[in-house]
Specification:
Radius of gyration: 28 Å
Number of domains: 2
Low-confidence stretches: 208-212, 214-219
Distance between the termini: 46 Å
Shape: elongated
Strand order of the largest sheet: 2-1-11-5-6
Helix content: 40-55%
Mean pLDDT: 91
Bound molecules: the ligand Nc1nc2c(c(=O)[nH]1)N[C@H]1C(S)=C(S)[C@@H](COP(=O)(O)O)O[C@H]1N2, molybdenum atom
Largest sheet: 5 strands, mixed
Keywords: Membrane, Transmembrane, Transmembrane helix
Protein name: Oxidoreductase, molybdopterin binding
Organism: Frankia casuarinae (strain DSM 45818 / CECT 9043 / HFP020203 / CcI3)
């Protein structure tokens, strides 16, 4: 490979920031005119303050999203722990709630900065052009993530791509663009956040050249910064308060906007995929049903034999990736006792398979820490009764600290992987 010219590193910063020639002023019409957006709310301080809140919300949403992704697709070196049992409920509740709260924050932020679309001159330097270009993936990514996320929690799967994969990759693009954006705006953020008024005035004068929004005319009346901040905060607060009830116990009564009430459905639990939709109705009711556990030994149970095994009870939530969580008391044999009967070693991962012939959630892998947890059951009952067909009759997996998609229903086989 040829070496880069030696002058490059030294010249690069200058090349990037060198002032480009300005376009002729006759082009300054309409929104391009000076002072075309007189509201004092289109200012760097408003933008920076909203940006901080949005950054916190997006950061939390991204990290909790990673947790959910890696719980569902663990790399080989990662064995997810089964405790604390409530962890996934908290991370996924945060994921959906911070995503929803971002909607009003993002709208307010976009409104505050949209005059920058007509910034003059449009390009000041190469660095400025690059900085402006990173805004495209940032805004497109943010809008895409929030709208597909909302469609998903509302179970509106009309888009023609696979939600989880796309949502995951666009998250990386968006967060990458966000980091670049924060780096590019560091001076403006520093000058506007966490400083006293006189310090801000001083710094604003020093950074005036880096932002065209600094010169908003004072005293133009109308909504104040505090007013817009309060309105946005209130909107975010109302959204959080009226949706958090789908995952936070005790808030269900406030749960007006959320697509789910955690207590509505057969046996007081919601259902995502019914037995009918999964086409398992007759297989699940078939008296010839057998549960097969395959390890070094192969053990087969009829439904009566399954019910005759020693029963345990576990109070565990179903925590759907779509943001709702519902508590229940499940009854049935411990998974680890079934594995022992088939002589499956304690460090083995097992696959739990459903009667469902097709579908993305027809099987799930259970790592040793989950498989051996005393709370993990192959449940045959819930809340004191036999499982409803829609909750996975004759048997379903229920384990702590695990997304709902992995709590396989209508189980008929457990095999050592
Ligand atoms: N076989 C099978 N099991 C499944 C599913 C499925 O589609 N097929 N859906 C999962 C999802 S997404 C969730 S949230 C829970 C919901 O369980 P419930 O219907 O008993 O509330 O079951 C899981 N188990
Ligand atoms: Mo789910």
């Amino acid at each position: 490979m040829r070496q880069l010219p030696r002058w490059l590193p030294r010249r690069l910063p200058r090349l990037l920031t060198e002032k480009l020639p300005e376009p002729p002023p006759v082009l300054r019409r309409g929104p391009l005119r000076e002072n075309a957006f007189p509201s004092r709310l289109h200012d760097p301080r408003m933008a920076a303050l909203l940006g901080v809140w949005l950054g916190i919300a997006f950061g939390t949403c991204f990290l909790t999203g990673l947790v959910s992704h890696f719980m569902q697709h663990p790399p080989s070196w990662l064995e997810w722990p089964s405790r604390p049992a409530w962890l996934y409920r908290v991370t996924q509740g945060l994921h959906v709630t911070t995503g929803l709260a971002s909607v009003p924050l993002l709208l307010a932020k976009l409104w505050t900065v949209y005059p920058l679309l007509w910034e003059w001159p449009p390009i000041r330097s190469v660095a400025h052009a690059v900085e402006r270009m990173t805004i495209v993936p940032l805004i497109a990514g943010a809008i895409f993530q929030l709208s597909t996320g909302i469609a998903n929690i509302a179970q509106w799967y009309r888009f023609h791509f696979f939600f989880t994969v796309t949502h995951y990759w666009v998250a990386w693009i968006t967060i990458g663009a966000l980091v670049l954006h924060i780096v590019a705006k560091l001076t403006v953020i520093r000058a506007n956040v966490g400083r006293r008024r006189h310090e801000r005035a001083h710094l604003a004068a020093a950074t005036m050249a880096t932002t065209t929004m600094a010169g908003a005319a004072p005293g133009t009346g109308g909504l104040t910064r505090r007013g817009l901040g309060l309105a946005t905060g209130t909107a975010a607060g109302v959204i959080v308060a009226t949706t958090a009830g789908q995952s936070v116990p005790g808030l269900a009564r406030l749960d007006l906007l959320a697509p789910r009430r955690p207590d509505i459905g057969p046996q007081g639990l919601p259902v995502n995929r019914t037995a009918r939709a999964a086409r398992v109705t007759s297989l699940a009711r078939d008296p010839g049903y057998r549960l097969e556990v395959v390890g070094p030994r192969r053990v087969v149970y009829t439904i009566e034999e399954l019910h005759a095994l020693r029963r345990y009870s576990s109070k565990l939530p179903i925590t759907c990736v779509e943001g709702w969580a519902a508590d229940a008391t499940w009854h049935g044999p411990r998974l680890r006792n079934l594995l022992d009967a088939a002589m499956i070693p304690a460090d083995a991962t097992v696959r739990v398979e459903s009667l469902e012939a097709r579908g993305g959630y027809r099987a799930s892998d259970v790592n040793p820490s989950h498989a051996r947890d005393s709370l993990t059951l192959l449940a045959t009952g819930v809340n004191g009764a036999d499982l409803d067909l829609d909750h996975g009759y004759p048997a379903r997996l229920i384990a702590p600290n695990r997304p709902g998609v992995l709590q396989t229903k209508w189980v008929h086989r457990v095999v050592m992987v």
